[in-house]
Amino acid sequence: MRGPLIVKRAFSEPLLLLAAFGSILLATTTLVALTMYASSIADAGVRRTMETASYQQTTATVSAPVTVETFPGFDRSVRAEFARAYTRPPAVTTSFGSDSYTMPGQERRKRPELLRFGSYDGLDRHARLVSGAWPRAGGDRVEVAMSLSAASASGFQVGQEFTTTGRLDPRPVQVRVAGIFQLDDPFGERWAGEPLLSRGTERGEFTTYGPLMVARETFVTHFATSVNATWTAEPDLRALTPAQLRPMAAAIDRVEKRLKAGGCANCVAASRLPEMLTQLDTASLVARSTMLIPVLQLLLLAAYALMLTARLLADHRRMEVALLRSRGAGTVRLAGLAGGEALLVALPCAVVAPFLGPPLLALVNQLPWIKASGVRLAPVADLGSFLVSFGVALAAVVLLVLPALAGARRTYVEEQTARGRSGGRGLIQRAGADLALLVVAALAIWQLRHYGAPVTATAAGGLGIDPLIISGPALALLTGGMLGLRLVPRISKPAEKLTSRRPTLAPALGAWQVSRRPLKYAGPTLLLTMAVAIGIVSLATAATWRASQDDQARHQAGADLRLSGPPDGPELGSLGRGTAFTTLPGVTAASPAFRGQTELSGESAVLLGVEAGKLGELFRLRPDLSAQTVEQMSRALAGSQAGRLELPGRPATLTLRARVDADLPLRLVLSDGLGVWRDLPLGVLHAGDNRIDLDLRPLAGRTGKITYPLSLRGLIAITAPGPANLTLTGLSAGGRELAAPPLSMKVTGTSPAMAAFAPPPAPGPVPVVLTADLAASIKLGVGQVGPAGIDRKVLQVKVVAVVDTMPTTTAGQPAVLADWGTLQAYELSVAELPRPATEWWLAADDPTPAVRALASRPEWDVTALDERALAATLRDDPLASGLQGALMLGFLAALVFAALGFLVNAAVAARERTAEFAILRALGVSSRQMFGLLAIEQAFVIGLSLAAGTGLALVVGVLVVPHIVLTGQATAVSPGVLLDIPWGATAAMLALVAAVLFAIVAGLARNLRRQGLGLREEQ
């Protein structure tokens, strides 16, 4: 009997049970999809990070001195430990470097040129042969292959044979050059620890060529005389899962300890991978925990929508339940009826939801930021998704049953008496529970703002998800909505008084209806308020996240395109790099720049030198980071400039004639037309007249060009054996004799000395821009002048601006910005060598053509940081962008919940008042007035919900959103996150919601009109 009774009972209220079914199906499907999404995006984020990680980040190395006897045992041990540490055995390559050998024919020289031999497993996979063949092991002679740059510099050719001896090992080695090769990426990260291999030549106290690459067997046999061997593990981490991160990091950390215990006492292991894996593990945990925020918001909204439906269902059955009680039905039987009815609705949803989740995620894949990241989510229904689905469905059953049992003990007479009663405040408000929830929500949000993420340290020393923190936004939305309900009676009563004075009937009746039964409208108002707030917060979070990615990219790059690399090189010399960079396609402005660590009044800081006049075009500083604009900084930063003697024409040579009265080492400082400074050694001038001839063409490099005009700045004597006096007696440029300036120098021999080619302007304080912490440390504010020590030299500085954080630096990193020319003038005035141009800052409307041109010239040895590419990389990080997809899922589900809940409540309310409406029609109330009556009642709910939801979203957005936008590494964003509310999209969403809800009201009014006419005809 119970089965058919439950079915009959269920179909007696098809509208409410259909609404309950829709709510449960929407909740289970969306929550299953969100849990699938959170797991999938975390896995995708780990895989993407591993796929895009650099060579240096993922590899692990072990180095140890080896001999021909010890190498085989060490090799087996290292390979075994690498295989043990990784989930999949990595590819292991071995490389060697020999001691120095003498260049043939230079054995008797005091400072001969040197050769080095080397070996690298699989070199043929990373290089191509230009001529000859790869060396083979065995034979009478040692076969070697040389890089093209080493062969060009040393003069060796394929087929050439020679004999060399070691500086430490006198045994002669007979060598044959078997081949010449060119590395595929000579300046890539793989060769960062092999500068000789990538450049071919090292110049220092000795000039060294090489390495002459041989087969591994040859090296071990001939050159393994306690030389260094390096084993490099290159793991395949593409299939790595978040669960494997922490164990693998710990295993890699133990490699060195295990090797030492196994007998390799001098083995040294190094890897950045454990640190990276630990950080990635934290980021994955933070990403999953952050995605729980929209899940909890949706859970709360779904629970409330279901409770509204359950309460309506219970209200409709109050008299029926009272009659059953009067006929002997106990609480257990009533609970069984309600539970069976709820299970009849919920169980199909629990079964179907896991299969609806993947198609829903396929729609998420179409979101622009998910699609751009290349992440393709294709989860399948598994045990976890079914557990989530059935858990949500069972919770829905409980929510459906509870209201039905709440009034089960009332008698029929008590139910009749209670019908129609409606106070101005609900039980929760009367008990003050909304105020208590406000305190809990405030505590949760305070913790979120304090910790910066929903992850905190556990008692065991690890990391865990803090349930209070992740529930903070949801509690804030619920509490704000409940507090908003207190406005319903406070607004409805004045509205009733106002409309009662007007002659129109519909506004007066509608306002009176709301004022008389405010709790009837409180439920849908709270539901709509929370749904609207969730929608706006979701839009604001997505917009804030996108704006933050752009801010981070601009801050990290500092300019549209920032180039870094060695200030001098064989292809592009110090005065050739600027010419090449400024002529790149699309470049509109450029400035040489210096970046380096300095000590400012005892504080370690980053020193930046950029041309002040170009800051307006180059410097990407967010306006809120400083009270001064970039244009103001640009005007104020330019200080005293050094004098110069401009050389006419385009000279390729320079000749100086000088008279000294004692030996004097001297250096010449000059600059090009782009403002790049360079010092040239003039050698030691001997007592008497001296002539120094300089070839300026090497300053441009093999493929570079000098930007003219060249200017002479000064002569510097860093050290001197004793006192000396210098007088410049002649000067010619490009064979053209110039009038020698009256330049003289007196050197004491105890400190550096300088003589300028042109008198400098009056010295003054060096204008600087400081970060706020640095300004506070040296106790100088904007406009103030005071002493500051830079590189242990005290000078007067004038603070022209203070910034919260300096572009191109990390959060909290002290930094100082100065004008490039002013900085160089100061260095010259204290007889310091000029600072090299370690960077070039470029402005371009579209940096892409310039980046392509740089990529086609790897020999220039340039690293390009493109702001647009960096922003795209940040946006494409699945761990950073994962929250956006979850928010959009929650946003759409919230709007559907709002529309469904409003429809059900409005339809039920209209059905309850069918007789009332029929009487009004019989009394002569027109159809238009009937529609107006419904419109006024529901407009009150809609208007109050939209306004309260918008206000609540603003409050929650300000308090929460900036603290849940993190980097892909789960660290705080620099510069700080600014809330961005897309008012256009928000207004469109509010208009769409209002249109849908008023369309529902219009449909109900039309339906009531037909019902009213039918009832009137019957009467």
Automatic annotation (TrEMBL):
A cellular component term, taken from the record's GO annotations: plasma membrane
Predominant location: membrane
Transmembrane segments: 291-313, 334-356, 386-406, 427-448, 468-488, 525-545, 886-910, 931-961, 981-1005
A Pfam family it matches: FtsX
Chain spans, region Disordered: 551-578
One example GO MF annotation: transmembrane transporter activity
Transmembrane helix as UniProt keyword: yes
Span of domain ABC3 transporter permease C-terminal: 296-411, 891-1003
Domain of life: Bacteria
Keywords, comma-separated and alphabetical: Cell membrane, Membrane, Transmembrane, Transmembrane helix
Membrane disposition: Multi-pass membrane protein
Location in the cell: Cell membrane
Family: Belongs to the ABC-4 integral membrane protein family.
Family matches, as PANTHER family: ABC TRANSPORTER PERMEASE YTRF, MEMBRANE COMPONENT OF TRANSPORTER-RELATED
Protein name per Swiss-Prot or TrEMBL: FtsX-like permease family protein
Source organism of this protein record: Nonomuraea jiangxiensis
